[in-house]
Write a structure and sequence with these properties.
By secondary structure, this protein is α/β, with parallel strands linked by helices. The chain has a single domain, classed as TIM Barrel (Alpha-Beta Barrel). It is built from ten helices and ten strands. It has helices at 31-42, 57-71, 91-105, 123-135, 149-158, 177-185, 205-214, 218-228, 240-247, 256-263; strands at 8-10, 16-18, 22-23, 47-49, 79-84, 112-115, 142-145, 165-169, 189-193, 232-233. The strands form two sheets. Strands 3-4-5-6-7-8-9-10 form an eight-stranded parallel sheet. The protein has a two-stranded antiparallel ribbon with strand order 1-2. Helix 2 links the parallel strand 4 and strand 5. The protein is globular and about 55 Å long. InterPro entries: AKR (IPR020471), AKR5G (IPR044500), Aldo/ket_reductase_CS (IPR018170), NAD(P)_OxRdtase_dom_sf (IPR036812), NADP_OxRdtase_dom (IPR023210).
Length: 280
C-alpha cells in the first residue's frame, strides 16, 4: 500500500475514495469542529464524513471552505460524505434532504451520499432518490450505512444501481466477516465507523502488545488493521495531535499472524445500535 495519507481505493463506478477520513460524529457546531476539519486537511486528510443527524454540517462546511483557502486546494480535491436521516427516507423527502445538506455545507455537490439506517419499508424509495441524484450528476457516489447482508440483498433485488459503499460499525470486537466477504464479492466498499470502539479498545492487552512491537499506538494498529482488510476508516477526533497520529498508519504493516490475532478478538460486540433491532 502506498505510504500516503491520500492513498485511495476506487469504488465500482471508478470514483477515487481516500482510505482514511475524518469522522465528526458527536462533534458540536463551533470553532472546535471548524479547527478539527482544518487540522485534518492541513495534515493531508482529503476526506470528511458527516450526516444530517449530527447537526454539524454548517460547521463542517465552514471548516472545508477555510481549509481549502488556507491550503490552496480546489473543492475537487476533497471527498465529502453526508447521510440522509431516517425521518427523511422517502423519494421526495430524500431529494429535499439532500438539498438541505448541501445548503448547510455550502457545497454544490457531495462525493458520497448514504442512507443512514435501513428503516424497513422506507429505504427502497430513498434509494430510488439517490439513484436519481446520481444519474443527474448531483452526487459522485451513493451508498448505504448500517446495512446487513439481507438488507443489501433486498435493496439490490430492485435497485438499478448497486451501492458503492456500506458504512458500518467495524472494529476488532465486531469484525463482521460475513458482511465483509459479501461486500467484497459484490464490489461494495466497506467503511468503518467507530473503528476504535469509541476508545474502548485502547487498553486491550493483545493490541497493546502488537502496538509495542511496531512502536505504534493501539489506535494506529487498529486503523492499520482496517486498511489491511480493505476497509475504509474514518476515526473521529477534534485534537490535532490525535488527528496526525491517526494518519500515521501508512509507514508500517501488520503481519498475517498479527492480523489473525486481532481478528480473534471478535465478540460480535457493538457500541452502536443493532441494524436489525433499532427504533428511531
Amino acid at each position: 500500500m502506498t505510504q500516503h495519507v491520500q492513498h485511495t481505493t476506487h469504488l465500482h463506478n471508478g470514483i477515487a475514495m481516500p482510505w482514511l477520513g475524518l469522522g465528526v460524529f458527536q462533534v458540536e457546531e463551533g470553532r472546535e469542529l471548524v479547527e478539527a476539519v482544518k487540522a485534518a486537511v492541513k495534515h493531508g486528510y482529503r476526506s470528511v464524513d458527516t450526516a444530517a443527524i449530527y447537526g454539524n454540517e454548517t460547521g463542517v462546511g465552514t471548516g472545508i471552505r477555510e481549509a481549502l483557502a488556507e491550503n490552496g486546494l480546489a473543492r475537487e480535491e476533497l471527498f465529502v460524505t453526508s447521510k440522509v436521516w431516517n425521518a427523511d427516507l422517502g423519494y421526495e423527502s430524500t431529494l429535499t434532504a439532500y438539498e438541505a445538506s448541501l445548503g448547510k455545507l455550502g457545497l454544490d455537490y457531495l462525493d458520497l451520499y448514504l442512507i443512514h439506517w435501513p428503516v424497513a419499508g422506507k429505504y427502497k424509495e430513498a434509494w430510488r432518490a439517490l439513484e436519481t441524484l446520481y444519474k443527474s450528476g448531483r452526487v459522485k457516489a451513493i451508498g448505504v450505512s448500517n446495512f446487513q447482508v439481507h438488507h443489501l440483498e433486498d435493496l439490490m433485488a430492485d435497485a438499478e444501481i448497486k451501492p458503492m459503499v456500506n458504512q458500518v460499525e467495524f472494529h476488532p470486537l465486531l469484525t463482521q466477516k460475513p458482511l465483509l466477504d459479501f461486500t467484497k464479492a459484490n464490489g461494495i466498499q466497506l467503511e468503518a465507523w467507530s473503528p476504535l470502539m469509541q476508545g474502548r479498545l485502547l487498553e486491550d492487552e493483545v493490541l497493546k502488545a502488537i502496538a509495542h512491537e511496531h512502536g505504534k499506538t493501539v489506535a494506529q494498529v487498529v486503523l492499520r488493521w482496517d486498511l489491511q482488510h480493505g476497509v475504509v476508516t474514518i476515526p473521529k477526533s477534534v485534537h490535532e495531535r490525535r488527528i496526525v497520529e491517526n494518519g500515521t498508519i501508512f509507514d508500517f504493516e501488520l503481519s498475517s499472524e498479527e492480523m489473525e490475532r486481532i481478528d480473534a478478538l471478535n465478540r460480535d460486540r457493538r457500541v452502536g445500535p443493532d441494524p436489525d433491532n433499532f427504533d428511531f
